[in-house]
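Side project, low priority. Logging it here so it doesn't get lost.
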Amino acid sequence: METYQATMEDLEGVSQLFNAYRVFYKQASDEEVAKSYIRQRLENKDSVIFVVKDNDTYVGFTQLYPTFSSVAMKRTWLLNDLYVAKEARKQGVAELLLNKAKEYAMETGAKSITLKTAQDNEPAQQLYDKHNYVRDTRFYHYELNVE
């Protein structure tokens, strides 16, 4: 398996995974909108996407968004998306992606990587625990929907 940072050449494969990821989170399938969204991220360079390919098949991706810690005065990365195709699960794909994200965060001098996952997504929670991510018990997460 090969893990690397996605480029425009990976648009089709990443878009298909991204659409499947959204469906996993109970969103309607829309391959064209997913493709447009990923194209914008790659063109604008406002996220970093890593992919895993097994031969010529895209089997997983993660997407990181840059943010900053004012207190630490350093960059942080938001690991917003991580998805592994059903047929590739339990083969170490998610671990490859987490390792690549950590490596990238270290290369860019970041303070940390943050993420959130559904409360009922126990397989993901176990994976993050295994990779030394620490569940935040000091702060509450708030969100204001402005749509």
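Brief comment: The two ends are 40 Å apart (CA to CA).
Revisit when time allows.
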